[in-house]
Specification:
By secondary structure, this protein is mainly beta. The protein has a domain at 44-202: Beta Barrel (Lipocalin). The protein has 3 helices and 12 strands, in the order ββαββββββββββαα.
Length: 238
């Protein structure tokens, strides 16, 4: 308890004097005030949310490829996570991917090139220590393969990735967190409930463009047809 002597100066009270009582008093059966405990440190999933940027090196059939990747990872409503990843070389965007990782441990994603879906992925993911491990089944055109990805976090701002695939390619790289999202964000395209991800077994392959007459593409078939004369020429002829 504190005794305060204050004086009104015409617009507000000014403290003139005060003193503390030596004993703590409780009123109405309320317990003594207990200061809140210190906030708990973020778990691995909280550290995972944010924007990551880094380099990746892939090796396939003896050839090495260096790429840069940027991943934006946010909460997907209250059922999981959504990530958008851009993979590029200097001056060129190679591909972009969208992945939904559900809290029940399943995942679904698509890979796009110039806005067109060229592959789909399904699989499972889990947390082991300070690693997020994904086991993926992918379909890209006529190629079906499996992929193992281990994203480990030596600290909250560093993500080390290793990737192996069933067709012999492997990759590794390190990314740094360049920003942190503090609020949940809803991802596009998929609903927040009743989601039934497309599995590779259901034919998640990209359909080839339909052919026009006599094996020609629609654009070429249209070009080979009759041409209409411009309206201006018709009028001149009349």
């Amino acid at each position: 308890m504190v005794l305060v002597v204050a004086e009104w100066d015409g617009s507000k009270y000014l403290t003139v004097d005060w003193c503390n009582f030596t004993e703590v008093e409780s009123f109405g059966g309320l317990p003594p005030y207990t200061p809140p405990s210190a906030p708990q440190p973020l778990d691995l999933i909280d550290e995972y949310v944010g924007t990551w940027e880094g380099t990746q090196n892939f090796v396939f059939d003896g050839t090495s490829y260096d790429m840069t990747s940027t991943s934006l990872i946010t909460r997907y409503g209250d059922i999981g996570f959504y990530s958008k990843t851009y993979i590029r070389t200097p001056g060129q965007l190679l591909a972009e991917g969208e992945t939904w990782q559900y809290d029940n441990g399943t995942m679904y994603g698509v890979v796009k090139s110039e806005g067109t879906v060229i592959g789909t992925i399904t699989g499972t993911w889990s947390v082991s220590g300070r690693s997020i491990i994904s086991n993926i089944s992918a379909v890209a055109g006529d190629l079906a393969y499996t992929q193992y990805v281990n994203n480990s976090f030596p600290d909250s701002g560093t993500m080390v990735s290793t990737t192996t695939t069933s067709y012999g390619a492997s990759g590794s790289g390190t990314a740094k967190k360049i920003s942190t999202f503090s609020a949940p964000t809803l991802a596009p395209n998929l609903p927040t409930s009743g989601v039934t991800p497309v599995s590779s077994a259901s034919g998640g392959q990209v359909k080839k463009p339909k052919k026009g007459a006599k094996g020609k593409s629609p654009a070429k078939a249209k070009k080979s047809g009759s041409k209409k004369k411009p309206a201006a020429k018709k009028a001149k002829k009349r």
